[in-house]
Amino acid sequence: MPAPHPTETLDALVVGAGPAGVGTGLALHAVDGLLFGVVERGVVGDTFRRWPEHQRFLTPSFTGNGFGATDLNAVHPRTSPAYSLGTDYPSGPEYARYLRGVVAAFHLPTLLDTEVERIEPDDDGFRVTTSRGPVITRNVVWAGGEFSDPILPRCAGTSLGVHASAEAAWVARPGHVVVVGGFESGIDLACHHVEQGATVTVVDPSHPWDAGSGSDPSFRLAPRTRQRLAAARASGRFTLVDDGQVTGIKRSGDGFTVGVAGRTALVADAPPILATGYGPGLGPVARLFDTRADGWPLLTEDDESTTTPGLFLAGTALRHGALQFCFVYKFRQRFAHVARVIGERAGRDFSALQEWDDAGMLTDDLSCCGVECAC
């Protein structure tokens, strides 16, 4: 994608070339005559290229596309990471390679090494200031991802810890390891260090490892994670603490002390690992979204900002009621919907998006997403 001419108005600009941005771009590509592009401050799949070496996808890939079961990690109906990568649980760099292959195969107009510095609504839609110059666009789809927005615990001494997103969190460490946060990333890291021979304590008063009876994977550990958790518990070197909040982290001699409300402080031999999640990663568009009571962006039923028409959100930060779209197979359901909304407003033919619907990759009625499994 060449740098847009300053006087040329795009129908849509997608910011971010991860799975959400690439997937949305592919859906926009299917709308006849739509003028659009994808901009990325690094390279395609940049965040995944920077994943720690040992980190893997939680959702398995399998090429069931021809039988109405599109690969869970695919961003286009005619693609499958399992097929292109030859693996079922991709690493970050592997998935980035899949995304690059998809961009090349479908000739997706993408401008790399382009930082979006500011986005301002104006009479024509939006004026986007980038490191390569201004862009005028009628619509913006923010798909910047969350990886650059790590959340730290609300306590003193968090600078002494290592966030789960850092490679250092995965480096083998002897002795006692303390992990703050017990959902997927926390348990994943804890099991990794038990497998490396360490003794591990996980602290999380919300005890997410006991998810109850709900079947939504956004609120319970993945099956593979639960299997690893069982093996870690059986090692005798693994403890779960669910009766106290972390109150602070301090240096203690050659190690670290982790205060826990209502119980004796924990002593760690290396910097505690902070597996406390991510924020929405909205960057320069944060002020253009209203927020829900839980702090996440407030959206219309079309994934559009309630305060800034024409600004859409794609990816893991999507929230509708109690629904969380934190897996590729969830947030990809909205690619074609957003593309259809943009195409319809522009008066373009969007009938080619039927392919997404036929492949089970289009959800319009969000009420159907809360179905629980009977067994």
Features:
single chain; 375 residues; alpha/beta; FAD/NAD(P)-binding domain; 2 domains; five-stranded parallel beta sheet; 21% helix; globular
Care to give the gist of this entry?
The chain is built from nine helices and 19 strands.
Molecular structure report:
This protein is α/β, with parallel strands linked by helices. It folds into two domains: 9-148 and 278-370, FAD/NAD(P)-binding domain (3-Layer(bba) Sandwich), CATH 3.50.50; 158-274, FAD/NAD(P)-binding domain (3-Layer(bba) Sandwich), CATH 3.50.50. 21% of the residues lie in helices and 21% in strands. It has helices spanning 19-29, 46-49, 81-85, 92-105, 184-195, 223-234, 328-331, 335-345, 354-358, and strands spanning 9-10, 12-15, 36-39, 110-111, 116-122, 125-130, 133-137, 140-142, 162-163, 176-180, 199-203, 238-241, 246-252, 255-260, 263-268, 273-274, 311-313, 319-320, 323-324. The strands form five sheets. It has a five-stranded parallel sheet, covered by helices on one side. A five-stranded parallel sheet has the order 9-16-10-11-12. It has a four-stranded mixed sheet with strand order 1-7-6-5, with no helix packed on it. Helix 5 crosses helix 6. It is globular.
